[in-house]
Amino acid sequence: MNFNTDLSCILVIFGGTGDLTHRKLLPAIYNLKHSGKLPDNFALVSIGRKDISNDEYREQAYKSIKNSSRFKIIDETLWEDIAKRIYYKKFEFHDSLGYKELNSFLDKLDNSYNTKGNRLFYLAVAPEYFSLINDELYKQGMVKNEASWQRLIIEKPFGRDLSSARKLNKKITEVFGEANTYRIDHYLGKEMIQSLMVLRFANSIFEPLWNSKYIDNIQISSSETVGVENRGGYYENSGALKDMVQNHMLQLLTLTAMEAPVDLSSSSIRDEKVKILRSLEDITPEKIKQDIIRGQYGESMIDNKRILGYRQEDKVSLNSNTETFVALKLHVENYRWAGVPFYIRTGKRMKKKSTEIIIQFKSIPKFLYSKEFDNLNSNLLVIGVQPREGIYLKFNTKKPGTENFIIPVEMDFCQTCQFESNTPEAYERLLFEVMNGDNTLFTSWDEVEYSWKFVDNISSQWGSEKLSLPNYESGSFGPKEADELLLRDNRHWWNL
C-alpha cells in the first residue's frame, strides 16, 4: 500500500552513538538505499553526547554498516552517496539551545536536499528522555504537521505501567497526534509475523481449522541464550513480564488469535488485535498461583565456562526478586477460542535462541489407526519467527516397507534458507513504513493500554511476594514449574 507519493525527509536520531543506532538503524538506512527504497531527497542527523566530528561519525557508521548490513559487500558508490548526507550534532538532551540550533540546521538541510520540511524523529534513547525530547521539539516549533509532516518513532518501553504510559501518551499525542506517533515493536517488522496473516487468511486449508473445534492448544515461546548483559539496571525495574510479555508476546498472541479484518487498512487490523486483548480472561489471585510461573536464572557451567547467575550480573541486587522467565496459561474468551489454552513463555539464559508459534491440533478419535497405535504424534503447525524463519507442518504417514509403521514427517518451508539475505530486516522495513506513512506494523495506543492493563493486574498481585530464586540453571528450558504447568493438563512444551 502506498500512502505517500513523496518520501522526502530528514531522519533525526536521538541516541545516534548508541548500540541500537549502530547495529540496526544505520545498516537499515544503507539496506534501503541498496534496495532502491531510500528517497533521493534524504538526510540523516544523529544527536549524541559524545564529542566527535562529522567525519569521525561517518567512519563509525561505515564500520557498523559493514558489520551488520544484510548485504555482505558494501557498494562504495552507494555508501559515498549516503555518507555525504550523514551529520552528527553534539548536545545534551536537556539543553534547549541545542534544539534551537538543531532547528536552524534542519532548515538549512531542507534547502540542500529538498526535504520539504518533512521530519522523522527517532527516540533511540533511554525512556527517561522520551518526554523531555518531545517537549523540547514542541517548544522550538519543530512539530507542525501542516504543509509538511513530522513523525515520531518511539522505542519500548512505552511507560513503566499503565499510569505512566497514559501520561507519556498524552504528552506525545498532544504534540504529534496519534496518526504521527509510531510505537515500535520490532517483532512486528519480522517477515514471518507479517506472513502469519497471509498464512491464515489467504489459504483455505488453514482458516477453517483455526478454531477450538480442531486446535488443542497454542504455544508461543520466545527464548534467549544471553542474560541481561549490560541492562541489569533497566531489567531490575522491568523483568520478563514487562520487558517481553507486555509487548512482544501479547502482539504474537493477538496476531495468532485475531479474527479476519474487514480490509488490510491499519485501523481494521488494529481493531481486531484490540478485541483479542479485551477478550483475555480475568487474572484472579487463584489464577496467579496456578497458571503463572516466574523464574530467575542461576549460575551454571556451559562448555566448561562459568556462566553468571542473574544476581551476579552488573547493577543487579544480590537479593533480587526480578523474574527473567515467565510462563502463562491464558484463555481468549470468545466463540472461536472457547476452551483452547494459550501457553506463553519467555526467558533469558535458555537452552536455545528461538521465537516460535506452535499450533497443536487435536488428536483423532480412538478409532482405526489411533486405536491400533497408542502413541500417534500430534499434528503441529510451527511458525518460526527467529532465528530460522519459516513454516512447517508435522503430520503422520506410513513408513515405507512391508510392515505397518506410522511415523511423523514434516512439510517444511524455510524462508531464510530459500531467500537468504534478500529478506528485509525488521528495522529496515519499519523505517520505510514510517516514511511511507503506514502505521500497520506499529502498536496503537489502544493496544498499549489494554496490554498494560493486563500486565499491571498481574504485577500488582505479585506485589513484594518473595520467591525461592534462582530456580533454573542457565542453559536450560526454564524452571520445572513451567513444565508442571502443562503436565497438569496432560500436555508438554514442544522444544523443537
Automatic annotation (TrEMBL):
Entry keyword annotation includes Zinc: no
InterPro entries xrefs: G6P_DH, G6P_DH_AS, G6P_DH_C, G6P_DH_NAD-bd, NAD(P)-bd_dom_sf
Every Glucose-6-phosphate dehydrogenase C-terminal domain range: 197-494
Gene3D superfamilies: Dihydrodipicolinate Reductase, domain 2 (3.30.360.10), NAD(P)-binding Rossmann-like Domain (3.40.50.720)
Residues annotated for substrate binding in this entry: 186, 190, 224, 243, 348, 353
Alphabetized UniProt keyword annotations: Carbohydrate metabolism, Glucose metabolism, NADP, Oxidoreductase
Reactions this protein catalyses: D-glucose 6-phosphate + NADP(+) = 6-phospho-D-glucono-1,5-lactone + NADPH + H(+)
Active site per UniProt: 248
Positions annotated to bind NADP(+): 49, 92-93, 156
Domain Glucose-6-phosphate dehydrogenase NAD-binding: residue ranges: 12-194
E.C. number(s) listed in UniProt: 1.1.1.49
Enzyme superclass (EC): oxidoreductase
Cross-referenced SUPFAM superfamilies: Glyceraldehyde-3-phosphate dehydrogenase-like, C-terminal domain, NAD(P)-binding Rossmann-fold domains
Pathway: Carbohydrate degradation; pentose phosphate pathway; D-ribulose 5-phosphate from D-glucose 6-phosphate (oxidative stage): step 1/3
Molecular functions per Gene Ontology: glucose-6-phosphate dehydrogenase activity
Function: Catalyzes the oxidation of glucose 6-phosphate to 6-phosphogluconolactone.
Family: Belongs to the glucose-6-phosphate dehydrogenase family.
Protein name: Glucose-6-phosphate 1-dehydrogenase
Source organism per UniProt: Clostridium rhizosphaerae
Gene: zwf
